Amino acid sequence: MPVAPTPLEPAIRDPRKLRRTAWFLVGVMVVGGVMIHFAYQKSSKRQDQDTRPSIVARIAKEKDLRVLRQDGAQVDLLQNEGKVWVAAGVSASQLETSARTLAVMKRLAEKYAGREDFVLVCLVIDSGDREKLDALLAETATRIGAALPQWWVVSQRQEELHKFVKNEFKLAQFPHQENGRWVFDTSLVLVDRNRHVRQAVIPQKQGGPPFVARFDFDQAAGWDAKGIKSGTERTNAEELELRLIETIETVFAEPKESK
C-alpha cells in the first residue's frame, strides 16, 4: 500500500539570521557602491590627464578636392594620405592677415625639412580668374618662401575651396569679403596619416576636463595683448606653438591604418 506523505511543517524563521542576512546584503551593496565610485573617479582622472590629440573630424575620400598647385600641376589634396600635413587658408592679396600663421609654417618647414612624410599646404582663398591663377600661385609661393615638394600653395574655384576649408577642416569662419577685404579663419589645421583633423588636448592643473586647443595663433596673440597668462614662462603664442609641435610628434608616431 502506498505510504502517505509526511505532512510538511512550516519553516521556523530565526529573526537573528534574517537580520544577519539583511546586514550582509546591505554591506555588499555599500562595498560595491564604494568600489564603483572609486573606479569611476580613477577613470575620470585618467581621462582628465589624457593628452592624446583630439580627433575633430575625418576628411572623407569622396570629399577630396582637386586643386592647382604652384608648379602648374593638378593634384588632389588627399594625395597626402599617409603623411602628416599642416594646412591653412591664406589670401594672396593680403598675406599680412596670415603673418603669424605663415611664420609658424616657416619654422615647421625648417624643423621638418628632412621628413618626406610631412607636408605644408596653403590654400589661396582668393583665386580670382582661372587664366591668371597659375601666375598667382607661383608668385604667392615665392613671396611665402614655399618650396616643393614640402610646401604646397594651391587653389581652386572659390566656391568649392571655401566649402572645403569650412566643412572639412571645421574652421570657425566661412571665407568672405567685408569692405573689400577678405575675412577668414587663419588657424592652422593638422591632418594625420589617416585623414583625421587633430587638435591639441591640454590637461587642466586644477583638474576637470582637458582643454581642446585650436591652433589659432591670432587668438593666442590676442590673449597675450590682453595680459592673459599661459600658466607657463612662455607667452600664449609660444605655448600654442609648442603644443602644435608636440601634437605633430604624437601623430607622427601613429601608424597608417590598413585599407
Describe this structure in words.
This protein has a domain at 54-198: Glutaredoxin (3-Layer(aba) Sandwich), CATH 3.40.30. By secondary structure, the chain is α+β, with helices and mostly antiparallel strands. It is built from six helices and eleven strands. The strands form two sheets. Strands 1, 2, 3, 4, 5, 6, 9, 10 and 11 form a nine-stranded mixed sheet that branches. A two-stranded antiparallel sheet has the order 7-8. The longest helix is centred in the N-terminal third of the chain and has 34 residues, at 15-48. It has helices spanning 15-48, 99-111, 133-144, 158-167, 217-225, 236-252, and strands spanning 54-58, 66-69, 74-76, 84-90, 118-124, 151-155, 176-178, 181-183, 189-191, 196-202, 211-213. Helix 5 (217-225) packs antiparallel against helix 6 (236-252). It is elongated.
